[in-house]
Amino acid sequence: MFSNTDLYSFVSPSAYDTAWLAMIPDPHQPDRPMFAECLDWMLNSQRERRVLGEFDGYGVPTIDCLPATLACMVALKRWNVGPKEWHLFMRMQRSFLKKSTIPVLGGLPLFSPAMVELAGSVGLEIILSDGLKATVAKIFNQRLQILNTEELVDKYHYPPLISYLEALPSWYDISREDIVKHLSDDGSIFQSPSATAHAFMVSGRKSVWPTFNLFFKDALLEVDFVFIAVPPIYPMDEELVKLSMVNQLQRLGLAQQFVEEIDEILSVVHRNLLEKSISLRHLHDNLVVFPNFRRMIEQELSLPWTARLDHLDHRKWIEVNEIDTLWMGKASFYGLSCLHEDDLIRLATENYKFRQSIYNKELVEVTRWSKDLGLSNMGFGREKTTYCYFASAAASSSQLPHHSEVRLVVAKVAILITVADDFFDMQGSLDELESLTEAVRRWDGRGLTGHSEVIFKALDNLVNDIAGKYIHQQGGECDIAKILHDMWYEAFSSWLTEAKWSKSGYIPSTEEYLRTGMISIAAHTVALQGSCFLNPSLPIYKLTPTQYEPVTKLLMVITRLLNDIQSYQKEQVDGKTNLVLLHKKENPETDIEDSISYVRGILDEKKKELLEHVLSDGLSDLPKSCKHIHLSCMKVFQMFFNSGNEFDSNTSEMLEDVKQAIYIPLEFQTSKPSIKPLPLPSERKKGFPKVNAILGPTFKNQTIRSFTAHSIPLPMPRVAYGKMFMPLKFKTCFI
């Protein structure tokens, strides 16, 4: 996939542009097409697909099929080719016009009227159902508005009007000098094969033919695809194609298998972007959508990106089973395809199942650890062993697929935090809580009994295990036990402070509450200890509270605010406070929704800052993997507290996510042949056997069934397209 030097093998052909090239007569033999095998491609594509265009996410042809199909019909009739195919086109279009949908496509108001008029000029007239008449009338009115408001070429619109040259009506004021003036160095009209083909046919100036030949002969033949079909634009945006490949690999969960290739592509694109200095002239024309567009939109909008876990996202992307990215071109949607679709889907499926097998084993280990230490049967609070491990595994699979130790440490730390926090919140007496906190300060559990003893022994076991494995990993005398003792004491002290507030009824100030609350949420306790086992690992001094990085402090604030927005009702009942309740108390004239909005506003700003620190270079000297574990931790909290407190509940949706992530196998399915890429050079045929035979004398004596002509009931200018074509001896009606 990455070694393929033929860029256009990743691009689906454009039926619309191919049809326009098929219309060009050979300058030396005007009764024959210049690119005869383009006709072959249209005939074969029609037989295979029936509709020359794309479909929406529910398998219904979109109305952008109309200009492409009409252009192909005009080209076939131009050369008296394929009478059987015309009848197939007619039957197909009869059905298509009844159920077609309307996509958001900038050039549609220009193309559809032009192709309707062009079809009429060669005797192909259209009958519209009552339901579609209003739609087509609207499209014609949109064209008029565009032509009255846009310049031929201006700095506000890309692609400019002249790139739609073949779709401009004859009454639009454009001269041959305008056409020649805007020829690119490569001989094209703004890299549009269809516009360039039209310009070639209407220029009438042999002096510019060598320029056109540069485009048709040299440029297109150089990539060896013009005799089959053409892409929607030439030359293509190479970086767009490569970025689409990278996007697919990341979405499928395969980025780690192509690290070097992806890094090289991103480096080149970034370097080129810097050299170009906000040059965004291709931005509008390079919008990317997907075959199951509506389904993907619904999925994307159902949950914010920051609340989606990578592992489950990969599964959903694989299950959609649409590798092709769609590029919003001039006349239609075009596929940026991968020739190894089935191989990638199979690899992604096997990779997902392989991860599931690892996660299953690790969950068994974590569950046994929690049970052996007595944490899973404390008799109070939340038993969240599975939730903690699920979050650890599913959130980090993109960045940390091979870091088993990281997942295990993160899950165990999260489990212990959950149990200890519940003990301070709902079970322990103030004496017990003070004794346990003092034991953590001394790191000596003598004298503890009951739940306090269980918690401290589990904590001591975990810290000794982490410190021992860290020494083994780093070598030498890199003992982090004392630093971990201090980190855990910081957490226990914050829980004790909040317990005293709750039991005494004390109301802290906002500043005092946040200073304690961003520690008691303990998100940094999870992220920093997990970061110790990355490669490169977190520098030891970054584990000290006074040395926390800005990204760590942002994580602490964000996770506290996420919790507070969704938990204020429960905490109000329990006699506790949080930032939402504090704001309401300090601003009694406001209602609770105003307080929620206030906190959410702070949260949104802090999330932006965290993303900037994680995704930008130069704002932190933390290794990239350490920054990503901070992002993963934030996404876990966003997932649990996105629209409610899911961590404290056992909703069917959450349990189903756990099953999908760890237990339910993902089965391989062959990808659907929605878009066919342009064939590789080795697969392309040479010569013109089929079209030459059709253009022979035998065909000229055949007759074609005629139909009653009907005119489209819309006011429209009559366009003199007919002068471009040879006289026709018959009339066909398109129904």
Describe it.
The model is unreliable at 54-60, 221-227, 279-289 and 672-735 (pLDDT under 50). A three-stranded antiparallel β-sheet has the order 2-3-4, covered by helices on one side. The chain is mostly helical and 735 residues long. It has three domains: 8-222, Glycosyltransferase (Alpha/alpha barrel); 238-278 and 291-343, no CATH class; 344-662, Farnesyl Diphosphate Synthase (Orthogonal Bundle). 43% of the residues are buried. α1 packs parallel to α3 (65-78), α5 packs across α6 (130-149) and α16 (404-427) packs antiparallel against α21 (523-531). The protein has 28 helices and five strands. 57% of the residues lie in helices and 2% in strands. β3 (325-328) and β4 (333-336) form a beta hairpin.
Give the SSE layout.
Elements: H1 15-23, H2 37-49, H3 65-78, H4 83-99, H5 108-121, E1 125-126, H6 130-149, H7 176-181, H8 193-203, H9 209-223, H10 238-251, H11 259-276, E2 288-289, H12 293-302, H13 310-320, E3 325-328, E4 333-336, H14 341-372, H15 385-395, H16 404-427, H17 430-442, H18 450-474, H19 481-504, H20 510-520, H21 523-531, H22 550-573, H23 579-586, H24 592-615, H25 624-640, H26 652-663, H27 689-694, H28 697-700, E5 733-734
Parallel strand pairs: 1-5
Antiparallel strand pairs: 2-3, 3-4
Helix pairs in contact: 1-2, 1-3, 1-8, 3-4, 3-5, 5-6, 10-11, 13-14, 14-15, 14-16, 15-16, 16-18, 16-19, 16-21, 17-19, 19-20, 20-22, 21-22, 21-25, 22-24, 22-25, 23-24, 24-25
Pfam family, one: Terpene_synth
Cofactor: Mg(2+)
GO molecular function, one term: magnesium ion binding
